[in-house]
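User: I've been trying to design a sequence by hand for this structure and keep getting stuck. Would you show me what you'd pick, starting by listing the structure so we're on the same page?

Assistant: Good idea, let's start from the same input. This is the structure you sent:
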């Protein structure tokens, strides 16, 4: 019987800290040693002295933080273990965006698996999720609610192919925009994809490091004023700024219902797990204990109350 250390990973003001290996996971502020699950802004910040991550995550961070104080990047391959302060660490594909990783930590024979953000849905633009057995699952719970069911993304994207007007499609620049570009290329081939200028460099990193060819064009001012069957991908700030844009159908791709309000068409495409996928994933990794982060673990605690211990990760002030 393994002996789980309750405070092996704790939440602090700086981020998730492992004092046994003296490193942080996805720190919120710069630290000496940072293990980064993926390059989204709520998981990766500039200024860390040493960064341990996958090659794609390093590429995204180096682009985004080019004007910040340089970090030393220790690039690691998936499924290849390395030692950090006596803790054995392995990056496991998370299926969230290109380069995204679950972080498996082994210490004194106990396996702790931090998921970061992850999804089980098929996505040709990034590595598919991998499954490893664990003793303690440290999972995000963004949509850990039985009422949340993510629809089939193919069926969702095909709704855009049925629209005769031009479409302004709001989405996040990293991960979501590349996935949407590929879905549009594949299932709405009549649509020409135009990109906001902020998305172009990230698409080019996907072109260099990714798995599928993305077809897109830089946005031109007159692009949506002529012809038909054009989709203009824009980041949230731009989408919100053009709240009264004319002659286009306004759509925002997200799993959140609140982000579908006041749009012309709903588009429920999420890069996170829903309740059903969460239960399926737990069944695959077979933890004996679950710690929750990034959301509300109440429904999980209720579901597993007679089967295993489920709690929020410990916090250290």
């Amino acid at each position: 019987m393994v002996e789980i250390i309750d405070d092996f990973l704790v939440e602090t003001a700086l981020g998730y800290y492992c004092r046994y290996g003296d490193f942080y996971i996805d720190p919120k502020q710069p630290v000496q040693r940072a293990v980064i699950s993926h390059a989204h802004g709520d998981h990766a910040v500039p200024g860390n002295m040493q960064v341990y991550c996958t090659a794609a995550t390093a590429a995204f961070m180096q682009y985004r933080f080019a004007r910040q104080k340089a970090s030393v990047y220790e690039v690691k391959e998936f499924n290849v273990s390395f030692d950090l302060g006596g803790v054995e660490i392995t990056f496991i594909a998370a299926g969230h965006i290109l380069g995204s990783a679950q972080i498996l930590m082994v210490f004194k024979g106990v396996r702790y698996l931090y998921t970061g953000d992850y999804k089980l849905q098929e996505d040709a633009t990034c590595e598919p999720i991998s499954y490893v057995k664990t003793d303690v699952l440290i999972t995000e719970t963004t949509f850990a609610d039985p009422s949340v069911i993510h629809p089939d993304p193919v069926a969702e994207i095909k709704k855009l192919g049925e629209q005769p007007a031009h479409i302004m499609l709001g989405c996040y620049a990293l991960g979501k925009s590349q996935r949407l570009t590929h879905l549009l290329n594949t299932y709405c081939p009549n649509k020409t994809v135009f990109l906001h200028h902020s998305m172009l460099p990230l698409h080019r990193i996907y072109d260099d490091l990714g798995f599928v060819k993305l077809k897109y064009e830089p946005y031109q001012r007159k692009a949506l004023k002529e012809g038909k069957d054009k989709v203009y991908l824009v980041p949230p700030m731009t989408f919100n700024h053009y709240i009264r844009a004319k002659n286009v159908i306004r759509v925002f791709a997200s799993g959140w219902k609140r982000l579908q309000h006041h749009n012309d068409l709903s588009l429920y495409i999420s890069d996170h797990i829903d309740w059903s996928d969460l239960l399926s994933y737990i069944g695959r990794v077979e933890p004996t204990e679950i710690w929750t982060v990034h959301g509300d673990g109440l429904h999980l605690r209720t579901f597993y109350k007679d089967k295993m211990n489920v709690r929020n990760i410990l916090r250290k002030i």
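That's my pick for every position. To get oriented when you compare it with your attempt: The chain has a mean pLDDT of 95. The helical segments are 55-64, 153-161, 176-187, 200-209, 236-241, 275-285, 298-303.
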